[in-house]
Amino acid sequence: MAIARYNSQNDTFASPPIHKDVDSMTAPKGPTFQPLYKQIKDLLLERIASGEWPPGTFIPSEAALAASYNVSVGTLRKALDELVSDSVVVRRQGKGTAVATHDADRALFRFFNVVRRDGERSLPVSRVLSRQRRRATTVERDALELSDRADVIHIRRVRELAGSPTLLEDIVLDAATFADLASQPEILPNTLYQLYQHQYGATVAHADERLVAVKAGEQDAAHLGVELGEPLIEIRRVARDYQDTPIELRVSRLTTREYCYTSRL
């Protein structure tokens, strides 16, 4: 695999060098017209997304990877710094760099942004109301990029904070990937992203969210103990993998009596 090498003195890319294999593994083809460390980042990300380095696996050393791509260790380290910042890899003191895993606490607090009005965080407890396999709606097909007659797994659950029902969630997944999730495991874990990664090889790398104000309907009133028409926050999330492919559509309706949604920018 060859990539263009950037020359800072004349602001040009030199002729592509010849790629050397690391551990007999060939890096996938990547883009060439962007900063060199960005090219390296994309190439590393492709190898992680392809499963070449599964979650929890230590990747080759910085020196070995730099030699593989015929770049300086500084350039390679800058690419890894961005992957660390994106929570794709983690550095282990004295051990090296490993592909990140979704342990329960990390997954929960990275993607769960509901706090009490005074800012206090607490662990949610999930109670599953239903699980079923059914035909996808148009909205679900568009969000998950599915074919016209695709099936989905639909999970509905209530999440409680401090013993109080706070969120009503509808979670939708592609049945082709998560076929047995309609019935297995018998008890779903509190943090589903860890299950997706460990059991199905689907790693949630990031998510797109949209928040809107809505009025409580009959289902909200029944499961959250709110009044009909009471204001709620609806959080629509599409969770995606390293290559931006949709994994999950989640619509959560949050009661705002004691809790709010928070985001640190």
UniProtKB/TrEMBL annotation:
Residue span(s) of domain HTH gntR-type: 34-102
Comp. bias intervals (Polar residues): 1-13
Signal peptide residue numbers: none
Region entry Disordered, spans: 1-26
Keyword entries, A-Z: DNA-binding, Transcription, Transcription regulation
GO molecular function annotations of the record: DNA binding; DNA-binding transcription factor activity
GO biological process: negative regulation of DNA-templated transcription
InterPro entries from the UniProt entry: Bact_HTH_transcr_reg (IPR050679), Chorismate_lyase_/UTRA_dom_sf (IPR028978), Tscrpt_reg_HTH_GntR (IPR000524), UTRA (IPR011663), WH-like_DNA-bd_sf (IPR036388), WH_DNA-bd_sf (IPR036390)
SMART domains: HTH_GNTR, UTRA
Name of the protein described by the UniProt record: GntR family transcriptional regulator
Record organism: Chromohalobacter marismortui
Classification lineage: Bacteria, Pseudomonadati, Pseudomonadota, Gammaproteobacteria, Oceanospirillales
